[in-house]
Amino acid sequence: MWRIVSPLGHPGAIALIWLQAEDSQAMAAAMEVLRLGSIATGAVAQRTLLDIDEALVARVDDCTLLMMPHGSIAGVRAIARELHARFGEPIGDADIDAGQLFPEARSVVEARALLALSRTSSAMATNLLLAQHDLWRRTTATTPNDPARDAAMRHLLTPPLVIAIGPSNIGKSTLINALAKRHVSIVADEPGTTRDHVGVLLDCAGLTIQYVDTPGIRVTADAEELAARARALGLAEHAALVLSCGDPQTQPIVLPQLAHIPVLSVCLRADQGESIWPAAIRVSARTNTGLEGFIARIRDTLVPAELLTRDQPWKFWL
Description:
The chain has 11 helices and 12 strands. The protein has helices at residues 24-33, 73-87, 98-101, 108-119, 125-130, 132-137, 147-153, 172-180, 223-236, 291-302, 305-308, and strands at 2-4, 12-14, 17-20, 44-49, 53-61, 64-71, 161-165, 198-204, 207-213, 241-246, 263-267, 281-282.
């Protein structure tokens, strides 16, 4: 069994990959498949991992191996592909023995919380996960059945998908660059410049999201743009939040019915005057007007603040 313990899709100095076998013989066979040579129980060695990267490899016990290559996204993905080819699908949180990874934990819940902390990229999750040991100790083994809360809280562990959709040439690309504080999308006055979606991980005041800027949608005979439109609308069906964008003189497009997906109407280029249509929020990437409120609105829509203050346990490992 194997899995990547460190946050997926998030770069770092060092990644952590966990490998467990049924017994010492199975572990020896796995190490031979990985061409790691002999590593004694309790020892740490430097090895070349799958001809991809140098890694520290720790033999925690007879059946458990921790591999620590560099944390580049491309390198970790390449290693994951090779592990998948040799050992099959990685296991999920519910299948892993967190107590083996974190023997210092005071309970199974705390061990699972430490495992979740090692993977989450949202700062908002930290105090909540650290409180779970005491919350579960003070309560019964079950929690209230609240699917809506569970779905929202899972956004703390896996960055939710936020899709920006709107007509061409309204400032969506400028907005994503302002939010990311770096150049991630092409900006031009010519409509249709962006032909495919552009994604980036963003920190929304403690909640990490996967923000995707889709191509501007317009009436066109261009087959490539029509295909981009179809991809954008298809992607929206898998989003946790859709940002329906326009500018003061351009209304958002009419979106297809999106069952159970919240939609937030956003007027971009707010510095250009009052809009001809009602928007839930106004923002200007050029002057930074409304950016903080916009970020907070995204965060609170996905994870309402009142959920974080409830004095009740959370089955975050399911």
